[in-house]
Amino acid sequence: MPSLDFNCDLGEGCGQDAAIAPHISSASIACGAHAGDASTMREAVALCLAHGVAIGAHPSFEDREHFGRRELVLPATQIHALVARQVASLASICAEAGARLHHVKPHGALYNLAARDRGVAGAIADAVRGSDPTLMLYGLANSELTAAGEAAGLRVAHEAFAERAYDADGRLAPRGTPGAVIEGFDDALAQVRDFVRDGIVFARDGSRVPIRADTLCLHGDRADAAEFARGLRAALEAEGVSVHVPGNGA
């Protein structure tokens, strides 16, 4: 039976967290840099505990104005520090609630930069290892970030995206370019089926790109994120996919 983690971003102030949480197996929670604060982190952690969802930190560039989706040029030391600080913030809130972190997944521009920049990827991996070497690192499949995590001795989850288009190099199509976001549920589901059945994704130019999918991402800031979450979970189970958290052996 094929298996897949189903991850969604929570705590970003989009108002759908309670409707999304029952359908996912792991969540990446905004840590106050691109969105959220201590209160929203506590609410998201409580939702995860209520629904048996694994908890992850979602650190980003400190850029709320652009929702963490503007690429910033920072030295590796600053990237290390901002990741470590955000992970520690959520870990403290988890400890208050009797929970613990499962993973770290960078957000937005930081995620995409780490996918292609070895220095940024290494700084993130080192920050995660320094925070807690048992944490998993989630990163774009077959990217510099997953390679850096493996080199640092971390457990790594290669991530694929349900409703983002890909280019022929295996990277996500940049937001704002034609077709970068997959709007229709049926099209997103077809892409997920390609991940699961054939280990490939069709890029925007029509080429077949091999992809490893340990974890599937749905963006929680979509207007229809709750509907997508419910529909994708039902479709995965109908396809015979075991939805569970990577690293838990379930």
Descriptive notes:
- The chain is globular and about 40 Å long.
- With 250 residues, it is an alpha/beta fold.
- The protein has one domain (3-243): Glycoside hydrolase/deacetylase (TIM Barrel, Alpha-Beta Barrel).
- Strand 7 and strand 8 (208-210) form a beta hairpin.
- The chain has helices spanning 17-20, 38-51, 76-96, 108-116, 118-131, 144-151, 185-198, 225-238, and strands at residues 3-10, 26-30, 54-58, 103-104, 136-140, 155-161, 200-202, 208-210, 215-218, 242-243.
- The strands form 2 sheets. Strands 1-2-3-4-5-6-9 form a 7-stranded parallel beta barrel, surrounded by 6 helices. The protein has a two-stranded antiparallel sheet with strand order 7-8.
- The protein is built from 8 helices and 10 strands.
What structural keywords apply?
250 residues; TIM Barrel; 7-stranded parallel β-barrel; 39% helix
**Silhouette:** globular
The number of helical elements comes to: 8
Q: What is the H level of CATH, i.e. the homologous superfamily?
A: Glycoside hydrolase/deacetylase
Task: Supply the number of structural domains.
Answer: 1
CATH class: Alpha Beta
Mean pLDDT score: 96
Find the structural class using helix and strand composition: alpha/beta
Do you know the CATH topology? TIM Barrel
Strand fraction equals 15-25%
Q: Are there runs of 5+ residues with pLDDT below 50, and where?
A: none
Number of strands: 10
Rg is 16 Å
Give the terminus-to-terminus CA distance. 12 Å
CATH architecture, please? Alpha-Beta Barrel
How do the SSEs run, as a string of H and E?
EHEHEHEHHEHEHEEEHE
